[in-house]
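Summary for the lay section of the report: proteins are chains of building blocks that fold into shapes. Here we show the chain for Oxygenase MpaB family protein and then a coded description of the shape we predicted for it.
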Amino acid sequence: MDDASRPDQDSLPGPGSVTWEHFAAAPGVFLAGTGLMLQVAHPVVGAGVLDHSEFKDRPWKRAWETHLSTMRFVYGLGGGAHAEGRRLLELHKDIKGVDRTGRRYHALNPEAYAWVHLTLARYMVDTAKWFGDPMTDEELEQMWQEFRAIGLALGIKQHHMPPDWASADAYFDEVVRTTLEANQSTTDVLTALTEPKKPIRYLPTPLWKLFAVPAGSLVRLTTVGTLPPVLRKRLGLSWTDRDQHSFDRLATLVRAVHRRAPGPLRYAPLAYGLMLRERLAQRRPARPSEVASTRAA
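The coded shape description reads as follows.
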């Protein structure tokens, strides 16, 4: 997509939008693993990650880079969505090959590229559903239109994104039912999430295990618990009544804490800083030069 066909900066979501209010909600950390699993279960994405990603060997670095990318195209970090779109297209253009079953793949396959974008929208919806206040129908529709604008800025063509949230939600269910699969990447990602590697090489292993073992159990609970049941079954992941009870108790606790938390604790730190910067910029009095320019116009 050329720049002329992309939305201008003013049409992208900003302060007060549904996307800004929901995307970086702090409880989203519990859904990060779910989003990754939904993405790599797509045959094209899974093959690309298996052959070209460093996630398995350097999961912390890869997770941070992904976080920064979303901050760019959602909250305008750096050059914003348009610049990030160009960077992502360049980054993915050479990620291609043949998977283990002989199927050819390319990371810029339009369907797969749009699928990743849809999982990010679903991530917002499910975070609100499980750990906050579910979005209203109006909020869902506004969010999706905002996310379609972001998608256009990232290089996704309009006809590869459903026109409304009802269609997007139905398409999500269809892809889960007919396309997603168990593959080596789903195994690797779940292992990386539930058996996290030390972020610092020289951190004593016994000390790391004091954190890693309970953290891995928690991530497995929230990741497996929020996967679509049909995909959970396809991946061979067990889920018991006891697991469900534990998940429900956790969700109730997180929901209560999040509702009462002060602003800085309700969002991911970097996102909150960017949101605060924009709010302050909107309140800033116009400089004399800006006033003169406006009068001249």
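Put simply, here is one thing we learned. The first strand starts at residue 96 and ends at 98.
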